[in-house]
Amino acid sequence: MDLINIDTSDLKSLAGLAESIAIEVRKGDFIALIGSLGAGKTTFVREFINARALLNSSPPPSEIPSPTFSICLTYNIGDDNISHYDLYRISNPIECRELGFDEALDNGIVLVEWPNRMGSLIPSNRLEVSWQFPSEEERIISLSGKGEWKERAKRLESNYSRILK
After folding, report:
1. What is the structure's pLDDT at 132?
2. How deeply is 91 buried, as exposed, middle or buried, from its count of CB atoms within 10 A (0-12, 13-18, 19+)?
3. Of residues 74 and 153, more confidently modeled
4. Average pLDDT, the chain
5. Using alpha carbons only, what angle is made at residue 75 by residues 81 and 58, rounded to the nearest 5 degrees?
């Protein structure tokens, strides 16, 4: 169920979307980030983590790099544990079993770039954030809620509208 389609060609709108999602997440949430190389997935994660830090009245991390080579980076921000996975280099879903997803979900919030590499291991309860490029100038993000996110994600559009005002 696509809930929101937003043009996020500028950083302000991408940051607003990340903040609107950051408001709704809770421990145990899985966010699947779907898009081509260079789409803006890691930039989205930076904005999301900065928004969670603000919501927790905590300082943001000084650096939020892409976990392409480390595969996972974890941030402890206030009461939040946020795990950022990049599965680009994973070639088989079986490799994902060793990455600690279950523990990360038990302890916090999980954001995953290239979630299709998980195959059937991807959680059924998730928010999917997908990037499309209808033209060279446009960057559209679609949000889709799966499982319990179907209902929870309905608030994202009103959060986003309120944040950008």
Report:
1. 86
2. exposed
3. 74
4. 88
5. 85
Look at the block and give the residue holding tokens 């206030």.
78
Confidence (pLDDT) at 134: 76
Q: List the structure tokens of 8.
A: 């996020």
Give the CATH number of domain 2-164; options: 3.30.1490.270, 3.30.70.20, 3.40.50.300, 3.40.50.720: 3.40.50.300
Give the CA distances from residue 144 to residues 57, 62, 80, 125, 164, in Å, rounded to whole numbers and listed in that order.
Answer: 29, 31, 23, 11, 21
Instruction: In whole angstroms, give the CA distance from residue 17 to residue 19.
Output: 5
Quickly tell me which residue has 């480390």 as its tokens.
70
Cα separation, 112 vs 121, whole angstroms: 12
Q: Alpha-carbon distance 31 to 15, whole Å?
A: 16
Ranked by mean pLDDT, the top range of 5-9, 111-115, 152-156 is 111-115
**Residue 109 to residue 78: CA distance in whole angstroms:** 13
